[in-house]
Amino acid sequence: MSKIDNAKRVLIVEDNMMLSQLYKTKLLLSGFNASIAENGEIALSTVEKFNPDIILLDIMMPVMTGDEFLEKLRKKEKFADVPVIILTNMNNGAIAEKFEPLNISGFLIKSELTPSQVVDYARDILKSHKKRR
Questions:
Q1: pLDDT > 90? residue 73
Q2: In the chain, what is the greatest distance between 2 CA atoms, to the nearest angstrom?
């Protein structure tokens, strides 16, 4: 088995391809396996194949928004407990509150963090999630 086979899998759900490629590159360089879905509809089919350990989720996307994706994801027993970090530029407490019932693990503002900080945050969430299991 190669190192990438044992790596934690991160699904990046983001419609800005430049940004998602930036996150993917940083994750790969940090030892993760990463995949990109450019909207919630694609992400729903990708989770079945990719089986992510954690998901970085944008809110505002075409076809299916982040909140629509998350509501459908949480109805799937297999993915009900997968950590999801909301990664958006919408800095609004009401939006963060809207996602609380959907069992999110974090709410990050993209413009306030470097890709390295996002990767570090995801790593911390995975460590704490593992301890709870």
A1: yes
A2: 45
Both tokens of 18, joined, read 């430049």
Nearest to 23 by CA among 112, 105, 70, 87: 87
H/E element, 108: strand 106-109
Residue 92's pLDDT is what?
64
In whole angstroms, how far apart are CA 33 and each of 1, 25, 93, 122, 132?
14, 10, 31, 13, 22
User: What is the pLDDT, as a whole number, of residue 3?
Assistant: 47
Give the whole-angstrom CA distance, residue 57 versus residue 62.
Answer: 13
Question: Which two three-digit tokens encode residue 115?
Answer: 């890709």
DSSP 79: G
Q: Answer for the pair 65, 40: CB distance below 8 angstroms, yes or no.
A: yes
User: Would you state the pLDDT for residue 96?
Assistant: 67
Residue 32's CATH number = 3.40.50.2300
Q: Which domain holds residue 11?
A: 3-132
Q: Does residue 33 contact residue 4 with C-beta atoms inside 8 Å?
A: yes
State the total domains in the chain.
1
Phi first, then psi: give them for residue 12, nearest 5 degrees: -100, 115
